[in-house]
Amino acid sequence: MEYRNYNTEYLPLSLNDDPTYSDIFITYQYEVKYGIEEDTAFDLFNPFLIFGVEKSEDAVVVNGRLNIKSGSNFEKEYRETVILNKSKTLYSEGITLSELRREGLIQLRDKIDALLISDKDLFINNGISCNKEEIKNE
Amino acid sequence: MSRNLLASLSALALIAVFTGLTGCTATGPIYQGVERVEEGKALVYIYRPPRSMGSGVTYHVHVGSQEDDNAIVKLQSGGYFPYIAQPGETEFWAKTESTTSVTLDLKQGETHYIKGGLGIGFFIGRPKLSVVDNSVGASEIKECVLLEPITTEKKE
Question: pTM of the entire structure?
Answer without folding.
Answer: 0.80
